[in-house]
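[AMINO ACID CHAIN]
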Amino acid sequence: MLSGPPVTTTVSADQLLERFLNANLRQRRSLLAQVQQRGQELRPLLAEQLDRLDATGDDWAPGALVQLLVAESDALAEAFWQRYPDGWLAVSSAQGVDYAPLQRALINGQFEEADRLTSAHLRQLAGADAETRGYVYYSEVPPMAAADLESLDRLWVVYSQGRFGFSVQLRLLRSLAGRWDQLWPRLGWKQAGVWTRYPNAFTWSLEAPEGHLPLVNQLRGVRLMDALLSHPALQRRVSA
């Protein structure tokens, strides 16, 4: 019997999408490239899928799909923004902060703008004195509302493929047994005392090291970042 060439089996777009959403972390990262390569096939399926996914969690897979959906300026992207003008992820604020601009920046991969907005939101959460002086004291962190720090962290995690966020930085710190001197190089920060936004000082893309963003002003040492990462809201998120 003659044998023909081997048959190549390609999963359908629906099957790929299901595999991606149900995969474990390691499998998902390997499937992400396929999802992005087959974006044209997948994009018409994403709006309906997003409506069924949990917008109150912190799974980064839906965030990656949102970014794929809005990657092109067409009717599909326009329909998404009409359906979710503030962004897909459901976030809340106990202090009346509007996180829609931050969510839109993250969705669009505008990480530098998102970082600036995050710094501004931390000043808002710290109070009028912090907004006037332009930076946050470490002593102003403990009273910050848990809901707001959770919202900020979830936004960064969901729209960075799980690479950025305060909880990511906290997990790295714990893995280093609390060694701040070892954390800075892991984050891609030159040293704790360096705080500059000059070009090339930081990487504003997913090519940055894990935990690279958001930035925290370290001009006065590690106290501010330590206060943030010690906040019960972030401690709960990492311990959950």
About this structure: Residues 1-8 have pLDDT under 50 and may be disordered. The radius of gyration is 20 Å.
